Amino acid sequence: VRAKAVIVNASPAVLAFEEIAFSPALPDAHFSAFFDLPMGMLTKLPVEVSATRLGLQPFDDLLIERLARHDIYFLCFPFDLDLMVGFVGGDFAWEMSAAGEAAGIDFVVDRLCGIFGGDVRKHVGRAMMTNWGGERFVRGAYAAARPGRSE
To answer: 75-128: per-residue pLDDT in tens?
Structure first.
């Protein structure tokens, strides 16, 4: 495509790793700016939980913290749906992305069983995991400027 000007909307990681080719090439200063906007990670793990509400109300917040272990936050039964949405972030989200969807789902179900008992397992139906880190043309969930580099 030839044009006098374009607006490119892409993640900084995609630009930094030159997944999009520009002609003429972008100035080196642009690449420094891309690397000063590293991609962060947030992984969502929606899980169908039916025939029980586990004593929770729609839109309850549940944070499962374990000292020196991986934390997970749940949005519980939004709009009274048979759904709990787990969220993990940071380094652990990157690790989970690398481990794969099956490992992520196992982690979620194990954490729920750890709080509510093993009986929860029979109420769990469909589940999935987002994988923004594994998407070649995204490479993360969000970008934030490094401290002191947002000018």
So the answer is: 999 999 999 999 999 889 999 999 999 999 999 999 999 999 999 999 999 999
Whether this prediction's pTM lies above 0.90 is answered by no
Yes or no: say if 74 and 87 are a contact pair by the CB < 8 Å rule.
Answer: yes
33 alpha-carbon distance from chain centroid: 23
The dihedral built from the CA positions of residue 131, 135, 137 and 139, taken in this order, carries a sign that is: positive
Nearest to 69 by CA among 29, 11, 123, 110: 110
Question: Could you check whether the bond before residue 78 is cis, i.e. omega within 30 degrees of 0?
Answer: no
SS3 24: coil
Q: Look-up: residue for tokens 């991609």?
A: 39
* Rounded Cα–Cα distance for residues 143 and 1 (Å): 28
* DSSP string covering 86-126: EEEEHHHHHHHHHH-HHHHHHHHHHHHHHHH-GGGGGGEEE
